[in-house]
Amino acid sequence: MNKNILKTGVQEFIENNYGTDIMSVLLSKPVFPDISPQELAQQLSGKNKAKNKLPTWFQKPGIYYPPNVNLEQTSSEITGRYKAELVRGETMADLTGGFGVDTYFFSKAVPLLIHCELDEELHEIAQHNAKVLGVSQVQFHHGDGIAFLKQTDKTFDWIFLDPGRRTSSNKKVFLLSDCEPDVILHRDLLLHKGAQVMVKTSPMLDLKAGIEQFGSVAEIHVVAVENEVKELLWILQKDATQEKIEITAVNLTKGRKESLEFRWIDERSAACSFGPPLDYLYEPHSALLKAGAFKTVCKTYAVDKLHEHSHLYTSREHLSFPGRSFRIDQVIPFNKKNLRRLKGEKANVSARNFPLSVAGIRKKFGIKDGGEVYLFFTTNNIGENIVIQSSKISSPDIPT
User: Fold this and answer.
1) Could you point out which of 15, 56, 126, 227 has its C-alpha 20 to 30 Å from the C-alpha of 264?
2) Nearest to residue 287, comparing CAs of 246, 227, 352, 205?
3) How far is it, in rounded angstroms, from Cα 128 to Cα 326?
4) How far apart are CA 7 and CA 17, in angstroms?
5) Which UniProt keywords apply (predicted)?
6) Are strands 280-284 and 323-333 parallel, antiparallel or unpaired?
7) How far apart are the C-alpha atoms of 332 and 400, rounded to whole Å?
8) Buried b (16+ CB within 10 A) or exposed e, 37-63
């Protein structure tokens, strides 16, 4: 950590130039004699990335940004806030503290928090930024989080881990056994030291596989931002069983929070009704799809599903639904003659449980991207390929 970066003149330069072309900075002569082009580029790039991902950090003068790989791996501000909402208690240990975003938000929910980070520079950066952000109740520990847990005689209300998902060659991984630290290997220690353990994993991890490997899963939170699943949160407890696992599928957007809670076992045993397209069409948000709440959606919202594998739903009356809602204008049997009129027209195309991809559909029928028309190429309840022409319905804001 080069503290010369914190000088007033350098900070003013970063504030005025964070949107500049980074390559030009790297190829230019040093702007400041005691700061390399690489170090300056790191700060400019970090500031630029923080503008949307971490607005609290972006708006605060004097923040020191880590290398891009660390900033990419850290939670966004919106997901950090969500995680903190799940935590209650007096003590917590963040064993993989990193840049400190999650730690910052956890500190607002827990009076005593310990931040562990093995990388010395990242440890210093997190400690510096905590002071800048006015965080005082966090204890910073430089070292391996698991080693710290083995050595301390303390126990915690909560333990949090965000295992590293990159190999030594910087390749991304998502299997639990490939992440560092290996939570499965240290599960007994974690549950001995923490009343509740929260583990953040890749959104690529299969829920069923995670449940089997983790064991002792009490809750799973599938967290999407702007309809893109960003992370899975696993809450472990000693006495948790599969029969009691609670799943929350949540989609976080600006001004909205769409969520659905259900039990893992209830989804397995729920029934779903099937039917033809009616007056309204619904597409669940990505967190619901990842959570596999296909039957729960039918039961909760009293909608029919078009087909077992289409994951599209329909109703006669318009409903407030966690996802995108559409008014069905017409249902078109899928054949070349019926779709000839769409050639050269603009439309938003989706393909669900359909033999052609979106790209294949656009190429075959000459449909341009965009416009106000939404076309769903799918399969109906009796196995026929159809096209549902629809208009999108804007959803009212739901406070987050």
Assistant:
1) 227
2) 227
3) 49
4) 16
5) Methyltransferase, Transferase
6) antiparallel
7) 38
8) bebbbbbbbbbbbbeebbeebbeeeeb
Cα 208-314-352 angle, rounded to 5 deg: 55
Indicate whether this model's pTM tops 0.70: yes
Q: Hey, what are 318's tokens?
A: 């318009």
Cα(176)–Cα(155) distance, rounded to whole angstroms? 24
Sign of the CA dihedral with 7 first, then 12, 15, and 21 last: negative
Residue 196 gets the label, from left (phi > 0), alpha (psi -120 to 50) or beta, of beta
HSE-CB at 59 with a 13 A cutoff on CA atoms is: 6
Contacts of residue 228, Cβ cutoff 8 Å, sequence gap at least 6: 286
User: Encoding tokens for residue 276?
Assistant: 């033809």
Which domains are delineated in the chain?
A: 3-65 (1.10.10.1110), 72-244 (3.40.50.150), 270-393 (3.30.2130)
Report the run of H or E that residue 308 belongs to, with start and end: none
Those residues with Cβ within 8 angstroms of residue 147's Cβ, 6 or more apart along the chain or in another chain:
none
Mean pLDDT of the chain: 91
Determine the 3-state secondary structure of 304 from DSSP: strand
pLDDT at residue 169, rounded to an integer: 52
At residue 304, what is the residue type?
A: D
Q: Name the amino acid, one letter, at 99.
A: F
- In order, the DSSP letters of 267-336 are HHH----B----SEEEEE-HHHHHHT-HHHHHHHHT-EES-TTT--EEESS----SEEEEEEEEEEE-SH
* 144-171 residue pLDDT tens: 999 999 999 999 999 999 987 655 555 6
Nearest one of 214, 108, 207 to 161, comparing CA atoms: 214
Q: What are the C-alpha distances in Å from 333 to residues 283, 310, 330, 384?
A: 20, 16, 10, 8
Taking the CB of residue 391, how many other CB atoms lie within 10 A of it? Answer: 12
